[in-house]
Amino acid sequence: MDQQKIQNFLQSLFDKTWRAASPQNCVPDFLPQPTKGKTVVIGAGKASAAMAQVFEKCWVRDGKGEFSGRVLTRYGHSAPTEVIEIIEASHPVPDAAGLKGAQQVLELVSNLTADDLVVCLISGGGSSLLTAPARGISLAQKQDINQQLLMSGAPIDEMNCVRKHLSAIKGGRLALAAYPAHVMTLIISDVPGDDPSVVASGPTVGDATTRQQAMEICQKYNLDLPPSVLSFLQSPDSETPKPDDERLVNTQTEIIAAPAMAVAQAEKECLAAGFKVINLGDDIEGEAREIAVEHAKLALETKPTDQAMLIISGGETTVTVKGNGRGGRNAEYALALAIALDGHPKISAIACDTDGIDGVEDNAGAIINPTTLARAKALGLNPQSYLDNNDAYGFFEQLGDLVMTGPTRTNVNDFRAIFIAD
Question: How do residues 337-387 score in pLDDT, each as one tens digit?
């Protein structure tokens, strides 16, 4: 199998992987039944607009009655709808559009009755999009804290613990606003372990974390908190509703797509193509460059015989930003992997985010092959210097090896595949 065919297979594998978790494939099977009251559709996340589009078409097709709705998604991730209003806002750092949209969502679910139904469409990215700072905290302060968290290398569950305790809408508070209506939450998960209270900071899910844990996380990563924010975290008012809160009794949550689904689809595709597979699972976490070194070691130790082999994995790595370059966690993983493989003649790889956006850039990720380092050298590029500067995007851009899909309108976390030729 020549190098171009290997590269084509890896890119096709990624496409089939994220498509397996697209809203059109997972939303229809989870539509709730209408109640005798109003039906209100809300949501937030990179996949929420596409989820709303599919919900709307299926709800109308099945003649389930009138509804209204409003969901927030990332700029560029919208989808056409007839009834549900789509609001675009900033991710990963919140902005004024997200603040306004979150306030409108809260207003939409206020003053409902026990006869009413709220359908909440949630996916990864919703935490930044659905921004409603708690009392006494400004948007600018939330933006600064969010930026500090993003650069700290903290895993998503720790970041969202802090976010929930500084919010008027996350950590179950959106469900409280909708009480006593029935709340049905459909989730496309992008977090390791698929904890619904972590995806988008669980706006409709009881929160088992505490404000004390949030303060400990802030201390762990040396976050610079304004006195007003620190004072709020120390106040009982910052505590979130817990899973046993009686006001959450009318809530129901369904994970309708998850990283495991994407990784399973990838394994199926690899086996169908006649390749052997080592599946490392869908919940890998840690520093992107460190995980890359571990995976390179595994790949170098793997000895295919009569069949090529792929090492596949999902999960969400992190990057502790120390440089000033461009590049998300998948491009950083790919660059660190290329360095560790040192031009091995039989190993190629792809690393991409299934939402089509690696961090804050316009690429999904990057692809490497045995010629990556040699081509970089010919261009006068020092791979280690680019890695040290967290500039994997700049490195792969010059090589023409960025993977560009545009927004996929789903989000089941990262996907990585290492191809070891026979």
Answer: 999 999 999 999 999 999 999 988 999 999 999 999 999 999 999 999 999
Find all residues with CB under 8 Å of 36, minimum gap 6, and list them: 115
pLDDT at 332: 98
Q: Nearest-CA neighbor of 368 among 343, 350, 392?
A: 350
What is the C-alpha to C-alpha distance for residues 314 and 258, in angstroms, rounded to an integer? 10
Domain 23-257 belongs to what topology? Rossmann fold (3.40.50)
3-state secondary structure string across 155-199: CHHHHHHHHHHCECCCCCHHHHHHCCCEEEEEEECCCCCCCCCCH
Q: Check: CB of residue 130 under 8 Å from CB of residue 169.
A: yes
Question: Which pTM value belongs to this model?
Answer: 0.93
Domain edges within the chain? 3-18+260-420, 23-257
CA angle 173, 175, 178 (to 5 degrees): 115
Q: Which residues contact 124 (CB under 8 A, 6 or more apart)?
A: 45, 46, 47, 188, 189, 190, 191, 199, 200, 355, 411, 412, 413
Task: Write out the DSSP string of 328-369.
Answer: -HHHHHHHHHHHHHTT-TTEEEEEEETTS--TTSS--EEEE-
d(CA 259, CA 143): 28
SS3 133: strand
Task: Write out the two tokens for 76.
Answer: 């560029």
> Domain 3-18+260-420 is of which CATH architecture?
3-Layer(aba) Sandwich (3.40)
Question: Is the Cβ–Cβ distance between 393 and 361 less than 8 Å?
Answer: yes
Residues sharing a CB contact under 8 Å with residue 385, sequence separation 6 or more, in sequence order: none
Note whether 51 and 43 are within 8 A (CB). Answer: yes
Task: Give 295-304 pLDDT, tens digit per residue.
Answer: 999 999 998 7
